[in-house]
Amino acid sequence: MKQILVATDFSSSAANAMEYAMALAKILNMEVCAINAIPSMEGVGNNIYNAIFIEDYHNNKRQALREWVATYSADSEYADIPVTSLCEVGSLKSVISDYINQHHVELLVMGLTGSTGITGIVGSNASTMVEAVKIPTLIIPLESKFSKTPVITLATDYETRLSADDVNALNEMVLAFGSEKMKVLYVAENSEKKNIETEESKLQELIKNTTLEFNYITNSSTLSGILSFVEVNEIDILCLVKHHHNIVYRLFNRSTINQVMNKSVKAILVLHE
User: Fold this and answer.
1) For residue 74, how many other CB atoms are within 10 A of its CB?
2) Which long-range contacts (CB under 8 A, 24 or more apart) does 65-72 make?
3) Where are the alpha helices (DSSP H) in the chain?
4) pLDDT at 258
5) Helix, strand, or coil here: 1?
6) pLDDT at 159 (0 to 100)
7) Does 62 share its domain with 92?
8) What is the mean pLDDT of each run of 10 residues along the chain (273 residues)?
9) Which pLDDT tens digit goes with each residue over 160-196?
10) Residue 79 · residue 93 · CB < 8 Å
């Protein structure tokens, strides 16, 4: 069965992401795996005693993860969802990447704010994972809650093309939610619109399970325009296509992603070429 992978550090943000993932798994008929990465020196420090009993520390962390996961799988609403956990030593990037390489993971879900409550820490991890993995990654701010009828928007400049896997994932999502419409927000670095009708037709041919509603940014500031559109239209999931030369993705990459999340954007789903 296909899996949703949830990165957790036991924070309130991770708990919110797990709740979101469980509800999404029910809709999409998928399994959920909660994964935690233990930094290699965590629990050791300079203490010889700690170094000797580090395996006990790791086992305690694994048990804590199992107990954390059990609070979700025990919910009668999610009784039919297979839920597993994995706690490994290593960097978040290496632990998650290794797992994805060995399992059929359809979606990575991450919260934005970590156990310290400082947005930048896990926000940095989120942007790192977006760079590292090739699967759709859903980033959930603490304020963002799951909706059974989400308003989904794809922001695009038409210069990039979704991968076949991500087209399939997007089609599965809108079909599972029963979305009659999906908004498309066209973004360009200049006001000139080239072959718009052709590009609209191509995109509609790819996204077959819903009717696309095309919109255009007229705001002089692209970032402000996107944020305003998200707020006015009460968007639940904003989809971006990962490409370093894509104006839309550049706006949300690394240095600005936390700012965006803190300015009313709900969940961000990062897709790939």
Assistant:
1) 10
2) 65/8, 65/10, 65/34, 65/36, 68/8, 68/10, 68/34, 69/34, 72/18, 72/19, 72/22, 72/32
3) 12-28, 48-52, 54-73, 92-102, 119-132, 164-177, 196-206, 222-232, 247-252, 257-261
4) 47
5) coil
6) 73
7) yes
8) 92 93 95 92 57 78 95 92 94 92 93 53 64 85 88 83 82 90 81 73 89 83 80 89 60 50 71 76
9) 677 888 888 888 889 999 999 999 988 766 555 567 8
10) no
Same domain, yes or no: 164 and 225:
yes
CA distance 183 to 170: 13
Domain boundary at 112, 140, 168, which? 140
Is there a domain that residue 250 lies in? yes
147 φψ region: left (φ > 0), alpha (ψ -120 to 50), beta (else): beta
Number of structural domains (the chain) is: 2
Q: Which helix (H) or strand (E) segment is 84 a member of?
A: strand 83-89
Judge if 84 and 108 occupy the same domain: yes
Q: How far apart are CA 239 and CA 241, in angstroms?
A: 7
